[in-house]
Task: structure prediction
Amino acid sequence: MIVLLFGVMYFMMIRPQQKRRREAEQMQRSLTVGDEVVTVGGLHGTVAGVDDDVVSIEIAPGVHARYSRPSIARVIPRSEPVTETTADQIIDPEKRD
Result:
């Protein structure tokens, strides 16, 4: 019974945590200049430089802060470019076919 309990704990708690840790380490290793990131403390910025264990983040134009790689929580995915629409491009709801 105890062996079964440890087996369930391993597959329900330990293994998923190891997977998340591996994914976080891989994300931190793949940081490149220009990536939008969020730190563990919630600071948003753009990667301005990457060294062995230090990442330089631009938090405002001309303002750089240095962080260790493990303090990067996530990379914000790049979204599609937003295009401007003009009034002529907006379809009037009353003129639907």
Q: What stands out?
A: The first helix runs from residue 2 to 29. The CA atoms of residues 6 and 12 lie 10 Å apart. The radius of gyration is 22 Å. DSSP finds one helix and five strands in the chain.
